[in-house]
């Protein structure tokens, strides 16, 4: 009887192992819609899990919302792209070990006939022209990294954000939805290049085209941050550190560089740089 009980207890312990390991070796990431919509996360997930043994789960929202999730302790790590807001998040004690990992750039897209005639202008000239012409413009309006960048550009152009104007539509949705709406309304918008490339792949026909790019003010930097385990003890510190260390590793940086859509590189690794 004792042997039977011992065998039963051993069997229960063995059956419980996979569930315990899964609970221990998983991590929750709050990240942006651009990493989801571009296909990067689905590409990175199996590589990350193979290299680290940690299961990667995520919620894809705007950067502002991702930082809120981090503040509440409802994620272990963040992958976001709003440097000023990220630095504030860390300075307030909500995040630690912020590392730059990759970048792409922002672009202005709009109707192919370009009624406001902004093609080839600088960022500041573009915003002034759109404002003067009251050209229909679709903003994300969702406190995402892209939205924060757009607001910053209006400010740097010494223009008041036209959120009360009829020609300026604050949609409050993710980038892919904004691009679809801009295409439907024959309007201008501001987007990260990665999501634009993914949009081009699915939007047939596509009435929009790139009109403004290459301005040095349009760089789009992404960083990883660990949610501070001292503020939120439920953060999986060991797995989170593996996550942070992996993104800046040569293997991860190569994976980022190798990711392409329709032969186009979407993100450019830059671990080790400072901002």
Number of strands: 12
DSSP helix fraction: 40-55%
- Structurally, the number of domains stands at 2
For the record, the CATH architecture of the largest domain stands as: 3-Layer(aba) Sandwich
- Let me know the average pLDDT: 91
CATH superfamily assignment of the largest domain? Periplasmic binding protein-like II
Proportion of residues in β-strands? 15-25%
Provide the succession of SSEs: HEHHEHEHEHEHEHEHEEHHEEE
Q: Please describe the biggest sheet, giving its number of strands, its sense, and whether it closes into a barrel.
A: 10 strands, mixed
> For this structure, what is the CATH class of the largest domain?
Alpha Beta
Shape: globular
Structural class: alpha/beta
List low-confidence stretches. 2-23
The count of helical stretches stands at 11
CATH topology heading of the largest domain: D-Maltodextrin-Binding Protein, domain 2
Secondary structure blueprint with pairings:
Blueprint: H1 2-24, E1 26-32, H2 33-37, H3 40-52, E2 55-61, H4 63-71, E3 77-80, H5 83-91, E4 95-111, H6 123-133, E5 137-139, H7 145-156, E6 168-170, H8 175-185, E7 188-192, H9 193-202, E8 208-212, E9 219-227, H10 237-247, H11 250-258, E10 260-261, E11 264-265, E12 268-269
